[in-house]
Write a structure and sequence with these properties.
With about 150 residues, this protein is mainly alpha-helical. It folds into 2 domains: about 1-30; about 35-140, Cytochrome Bc1 Complex, Chain D, domain 2, CATH 1.10.760.10. It contains 6 helices and no strands. The chain has helices at about 5-30, 40-55, 55-60, 95-100, 120-135, 135-140. α2 crosses α5 and α4 (about 95-100) crosses α5. The longest helix is centred in the first third of the chain and has 27 residues, at about 5-30. It is elongated, with a radius of gyration of 22 Å. Bound molecules: heme C. Heme C (HEC) binds near residues 76, 78, 100 and 111.
Length: about 150
């Protein structure tokens, strides 16, 4: 084999393999911008964030606190479940993201913490991806979708 042929034969696939690995690696590191429940790595990360930051109130199995619809003596509500028996799926992904990041509103007395100084946007999307991955398809299909933005002109 001529030296240049050898070089092409060996270096070609090697370069392709390296390029491929670089592309996969770059994709892995990209912060999430949606609750992509089909992304196994994102869901796995979200389940860890959920266990560390949410499970103490919303339950290890997303079951919520007992009697979550009844007001507590202090007038606040217990933590609702995130499984299909709750009302998490009544809100769009974008709304849920903002509830977790910025809270439920300044004037509303609640035990739900704000996570903007605790979790990154990536962590919040991952947590939502994890929660959504536990729902059956029919529940995900019922979730409100944000209206498409009007055309920019
Ligand atoms: C200290 C307890 C506590 C922790 C920790 C907590 N929550 Fe909550 N959460 C609540 C309570 C209580 C409510 C009900 C608020 C209300 O309606 O007054 C709530 C409400 C919510 C809601 C709105 C209701 C719904 O189901 O749509 C979402 C979404 C939510 N929590 C997500 C999370 C996520 C995700 C985490 C972890 C990152 C988390 N919460 C951590 C107590 C907590």
């Amino acid at each position: 084999m001529r030296p240049w042929v050898k070089a092409v034969v060996f270096a070609g696939p090697m370069t392709l393999a390296l390029l491929g690995a670089a592309v996969i690696w770059a994709g892995k590191d990209k912060p999430a911008t949606s609750a992509d429940y089909e992304n196994a790595a994102l869901v796995a990360h979200g389940s860890r964030v959920y266990a560390d930051h949410c499970a103490s109130c919303h339950g290890a199995n997303l079951e919520g606190q007992p009697d979550w619809m009844k007001h507590l003596p202090d007038g606040k509500l217990p933590a609702p479940p995130h499984d299909p028996s709750g009302h998490t799926w009544h809100h769009s992904d974008g709304r849920l993201f903002l509830i977790i990041k910025d809270g439920l509103g300044d004037d509303y007395p609640t035990d739900m913490p704000l996570f903007k100084d605790v979790l990154s946007d990536h962590d919040i999307w991952a947590t939502l991806a994890f929660i959504k991955s536990t729902w059956p398809e029919e529940i995900r299909a019922k979730q409100p979708r944000p209206r498409p933005s009007p055309p920019a002109n």
